[in-house]
Design brief:
The complex is a heterodimer of chains A (106) and B (118). Chain A has no helices and 9 strands. Chain A has 106 residues and is mainly beta. Chain B is 0% helix and 52% strand. Chain B has no helices and 11 strands. Classes of the chains: A mainly beta (106), B mainly beta (118).
Chain lengths: 106, 118
């Protein structure tokens, strides 16, 4: 079965750029999306179709997908961006999530 | 405003059954694929099942195939998940999600907790 791999944790200082990666075999052949989940809350879609932002998501969130790696980039990271981030892709009629990355802003 | 409201979670013994429901509002329910996604305590997100817009096709994760059944009632804007032969490893928050244009979920419910324990 298809697998997506994320780093367990990423730390960034306020105002700096955070990058969270998601790796999978020939991932750029698939559309990747990203969700943000804060403690006790439901996930929120922040990037879809590799690079697109839903309405209401700040411009500091961006995405890319090349080769075997998709990347979520948060520029000018704010403390409110702390939380867990999950990548997701579709493969062979199943919807696959990465294991999640805990973003710490300190 | 799009809303997805799950219900039906609770405590059930191993081998027991439970039926989850999700009531949708704020959009034309019959036009969208719908999914269930679960999250075990302290763990990540896992896709469980999906159903197409008119309810004619379904698919399941291997871990629940043969035990869970997804269904929908477009007249009542309701999505359901019948869960049988429950195991401890099915313990999780179950989210109802709306499938967007391609592969992503653009709206999530608040989740309902299912605990399988003796």
């Amino acid at each position: 079965s298809y697998k997506l791999t994320q780093p367990p944790s990423v730390s960034v200082s306020p105002g700096q750029t955070a990058s969270i990666t998601c790796s999978g075999d020939e991932l750029d052949d698939k559309y990747t999306c990203w969700y943000q989940q804060k403690p006790g809350q439901s996930p929120v879609l922040v990037i879809y179709q590799d690079t697109r932002r839903p309405s209401g998501i700040p411009e500091r969130f961006s995405g890319s997908n090349s080769g075997n790696t998709a990347t979520l980039t948060i520029r000018g990271t704010q403390t409110m961006d702390e939380g867990d981030y999950y990548c997701q892709a579709w493969d062979s009629s199943t919807w696959v999530f990465g294991g999640g990355t805990k973003l710490t802003v300190l | 405003e799009v809303q997805l409201v799950e219900s039906g979670g609770g405590l059930v013994q191993p081998g027991g059954s439970l039926r989850l429901s999700c009531t949708a509002s704020g959009f034309t329910f019959s036009r969208y694929w719908m999914h269930w996604v679960r999250q075990a305590p302290g763990k990540g997100l896992v896709w469980v099942s999906r159903i197409n817009s008119d309810g004619t096709t379904t698919s399941y994760a291997d871990s629940v195939k043969g035990r869970f059944t997804i269904s929908r009632d477009n007249a009542k804007n309701t999505l359901s998940l019948q869960m049988n032969s429950l195991r401890a490893e099915d313990t999780a928050v179950y989210y109802c999600t709306r499938g967007a244009a391609l592969t992503e979920y653009d709206y999530w419910g608040q989740g309902t907790l299912v605990t399988v324990s003796a």
